[in-house]
Amino acid sequence: MSILGKTKDHLSKILAVRENVHGAQNLHVGPGSVIWAPNRLEIGDNVYVGKHVTIQVDGTIGDEVLFANGSGVVGRLDHDYTSVEHPVRSAPWVGLHQEQSQPVVIGSDVWVGFNAVVMSGVTIGNSAIVAAGAVVVKDVPENSIVAGSPATHIKYRFTAAEFKQHWVSLQSKSVNRLPMPRSLIYLGE
Known about the structure:
Elements: H1 3-16, E1 21-23, E2 28-29, E3 34-36, E4 41-43, E5 48-49, E6 54-56, E7 59-61, E8 66-67, E9 72-74, E10 104-106, E11 111-112, E12 117-119, E13 123-124, E14 129-130, E15 135-136, E16 144-147, E17 152-156, H2 160-172, H3 182-186
Parallel strand pairs: 1-4, 2-5, 3-6, 4-7, 5-8, 6-9, 7-10, 8-11, 9-12, 10-13, 11-14, 12-15, 14-16
Antiparallel strand pairs: 16-17
């Protein structure tokens, strides 16, 4: 990559990654993307954020996560829509009150597809895939593929044996921060 290309990439990260975002080693951020947290967002290693992605929540994002173009991770309670004193556009912002903010947890080895939306308060397990255009409003188990609006379980990404093999392989390839998923530990495998 040329010096101009490296400078452009570095500048786009500075403009895209805003306050309260921590971690993020080897983070790629595509043009037009914004990453911001009201209080704290911890991002793992080797995370790829495509073009025009919006991530505006508190929580954690694991290692080796892919956010496809146009995807988003956003608050479900951004504005106090119950306020009788304000139109919804100017209603008090819920994120100002940490006790009302709902963090998101996205595991490692997760793919959030094109134009998919993950709402705050959701946990997405390791090795899950969120299909293009899905709207995730409830937790997604590890190794699951979900699709639709609201997102529902379609199938498992791997069989139990393949899932174990996949994680052993990830750990052997210097993806050293990825802990073995709890389900594999509890099974004694």
